[in-house]
Automatic annotation (TrEMBL):
InterPro entries on file: 4Fe4S_Fe-S-bd, 4Fe4S_Fe_S_CS, FrhB_FdhB_C, Polyferredoxin-like_ET
Keywords, in A-Z order: Iron, Iron-sulfur, Metal-binding
PROSITE patterns: 4FE4S_FER_1, 4FE4S_FER_2
Protein name per its UniProtKB record: Coenzyme F420 hydrogenase/dehydrogenase, beta subunit C-terminal domain
Boundaries of every 4Fe-4S ferredoxin-type domain copy: 1-32, 37-67
Stored PANTHER family: POLYFERREDOXIN PROTEIN FWDF, PTHR43193
């Protein structure tokens, strides 16, 4: 049976394949003191059938033998583009799916702004999936629900992290023609506990509840994307990765899941049909295009099914062919490389668990420099005067 303890947490990505497959329902996904979920087995009910180990994607070789194709793309709908993390490729896939009778699954906020996996059957409902949420999503019974639908013959499009997609495919244990899986290039996932502490900090600071969160707001342009949080009382904050304490904890690798520092899924081969990610270098792939700072999505199809699905969904996209190796080299670094481990992670969670307020923990472990605070304050001016792109070029 599966056995995850304090010594081998990096061997579990929290996908829920094991707890979903257990015939005795004796595996409970349980939150640890960092806010991540791990399987805990009730040894008294376990019949040692070995299924949980068999489906664990971390124990499997990740490979696909079909030909991959690479593209860069952008959705034709301006409003969707501006609300998508990159070029809106995911919404194109989800719209095509829904218009053809699929149920779409993806990461969404619940009413408290926890990130959870959810489903949608209409394009209006599927808006909740738009935009990256940089937090590990809570899976609940998603895998079991999908299996029930697939066995009935319903069509399903599942989107999630590479480990969630691999976990689902592995849990299902047989191929389904009526399932399409979409993952993304995945930096890592931060702790839901840290996300909750940060939301509580904001609620206290602004004396108001949160109204909306956009981790990848393009208000200062795609290349300078910011986290924009609107509060119910009309107050709002926009910050970048060097000035926002939550983004900084993510991009400075202090709040991520242990499995992300040695990720089993960092390979161009995927156990999914389609991968979407950020294309930061559009002019490298389409030299006659001007980079208008609104974003493009990079797309890799991994299977015949994925290639056909993307082609059919492309009617609402601008699509250009791209060279796979070049796309990975310039835009897909984290498709093949894990984030670097930093010893500051231990200190960060030690202070979090000692109950120090999250702004104090940030000050001590990953302090936000005065220079960056000042830069953050001038962003609005730089963007409005067109000086932002000059500042970015100088920085590069
Ligand atoms: C945690 C995380 C890390 C990422 N790291 C990178 C990276 O290092 N490099 C890179 O190029 N791109 C990364 N991405 C992907 C990138 O942010 C965009 O999602 C991608 O460019 C597609 O953008 P889009 O405009 O097509 O669609 P979007 O509108 O951004 O589509 C969002 C899709 O992501 C899914 N999703 C959102 N949040 C979560 C979540 N927490 N868990 C599971 N699924 C979720 C939704 O279901 C939907 O399918 C990451 C995304 C996430 C969520
Ligand atoms: S060995 Fe079988 S019964 Fe025991 S926990 Fe794993 S799946 Fe459940
Ligand atoms: S990676 Fe998934 S299947 Fe493996 S132990 Fe963790 S939750 Fe279970
Ligand atoms: S980095 Fe790897 S282990 Fe972490 S969430 Fe992404 S795919 Fe899963």
């Amino acid at each position: 049976m599966i056995n995850i303890d304090n010594n081998n947490k990096k061997d579990c990505c929290g996908c829920t394949a094991c707890s979903s497959v257990c015939p005795k329902s004796c595996i409970t996904m349980t939150e640890d003191n960092e806010g991540f979920f791990y399987p805990v087995v009730d040894g008294n009910s376990c019949i040692n059938c070995g299924l949980c180990e068999k489906v664990c994607p971390v124990k499997k070789e990740i490979s696909q033998d079909s030909i991959q194709q690479a593209f860069v793309s952008r959705i034709n709908d301006k409003e969707v583009l501006m609300n998508s993390s990159s070029g809106g490729a995911f919404t194109a896939l989800s719209r095509f799916a829904i218009n053809n009778g699929y149920t779409v699954y993806g990461g969404a906020y619940n009413e408290c702004f926890d990130v959870v996996h959810d489903s949608a059957k209409t394009n209006e409902e599927a808006v909740k999936f738009r935009g990256s949420k940089y937090v590990q999503s809570y899976m609940g019974n998603t895998f079991k629900n999908i299996k029930k639908q697939l066995d009935k013959g319903d069509k399903v499009l599942f989107s999630g992290t590479p480990c969630q997609c691999a976990g689902l495919v592995s849990y299902l244990r047989k191929p389904y023609d009526n399932l399409v899986t979409v993952d993304f290039v995945c930096h890592a996932v931060p702790s839901p506990k840290v996300w909750k502490l940060y939301r509580d900090y904001l609620t206290k600071k602004y004396k108001s509840n949160i109204k909306s969160v956009n981790f990848r707001s393009k208000v200062y342009g795609y290349h300078c994307s910011s986290i924009k949080i609107d509060m119910e009382n009309g107050k709002s904050q926009k910050m970048g990765l060097n000035t926002d304490m939550f983004l900084k904890s993510f991009f400075f690798n202090v709040s991520c899941r242990p499995s992300c520092y040695d990720c089993h899924f960092k390979t161009v081969d995927r156990m999914c049909d389609i991968t979407v990610f950020d294309c930061w270098n559009i002019t490298r792939f389409v030299p006659n295009k001007k980079d208008d700072d609104k974003g493009y999505s990079a797309v890799i199809t991994h299977s015949e099914k994925g290639a056909k699905f993307f082609k059919q969904a492309s009617t609402c996209l601008e699509v250009f062919d791209a060279d796979l190796d070049t796309l990975i080299k310039y835009d897909g670094k984290y498709a093949v490389k894990s984030i670097d481990y930093t010893p500051k992670r231990e200190e960060y969670f030690r202070l979090v668990n000692e109950g120090l307020p999250i702004d104090e923990v940030t000050k001590r472990v990953i302090p936000i420099k005065a220079k960056n605070k000042l830069m953050g304050k001038t962003k609005g001016f730089l963007h409005a005067t067109g000086l932002m792109s000059l500042a970015q070029k100088l920085k590069k």
